[in-house]
Amino acid sequence: MVQAIRFYETGGPEVLKLEEVEVGDPGPGQARVRHSYIALNFIDTYFRTGRYPLALPNGLGSDAVGVVEAVGPGVTDIRPGDRVGYLIGPQGAYAQARVMPAEVLIPLPDGIDDRTAATLMMKGMTAQYLFRQVVPLQGGETILYHAAAGGVGLIACQWARALGVTMIGTVSTDEKAAIARANGCTHTIVTSREDIVARVREITDGKGVPVVYDSVGKDTLMASLDCLQPRGRLVSNGTSSGSVVVDSQLLAQKGSIWMTRPAMLHYIQPRAHMLAMARELFDHVLAGRIVSAPQQEFALRDAAEAHRALESRRTTGATVLVP
Which segments constitute the Enoyl reductase (ER) domain (predicted)? Predict the structure, then answer.
């Protein structure tokens, strides 16, 4: 038996319950992983509240690192004792151990410890597919990135710097602005006291930016559109403030804007591609171009409190649960 977080109804953080659950042996194509760290992602709150439906009761979380304890028949590239991480697969990462499809497990290099790796699976791979696939940045661009001091944001700041990209990042406080700049964000906009569009136009000499990465959603949609150059691209990669509904005529009026709502699942498969994405990310970390560590840690039993901290914007960078 192991401890795991379960929930039987959607709602606030209080619906998360710590329980004893049975973890069996892995079947064909599966591996059992003993977790060392579990990552907290904003998408977890969407499943908890029912914005993204799940059959209930269910577990929560899709992102963790740990050690393989056993593998099932047919698994050849993962072995007991391997250190691995994952970011896709069934919900249920909020647990001391679980059985997972072996094809989603990513081997971790010796030079990256588990605590660091726990901040890289979903968040680092998100930065990879946003900057290297959704809109491939070549260097020299000026971009607008919302929530620059968040878990993905701090990695994005460093990745932009490594690529030679000028990043304008929005944050909610001066403290978060300082953190974003320390991680490579070229310019910061404190949204509690600065106008996003006016500052972007000032920084870019009135031209606007060719691409906006917007994980906030409803509250920043119009500002994002107004910051774009004609034929610019809006990457709507999150909806923390609410869903986005856009009339296509508005995109024409704002300058023939291209808009996409990417999902990790469509950029990370097949397995060979996922491993190549991870190698690019790990190479940056091993070379020191990206430095990442949890800024907040909570015990697994305190998952509800971790959710409260995340939703109240009391966190910066990555948050992890320790089983």
Answer: 11-321
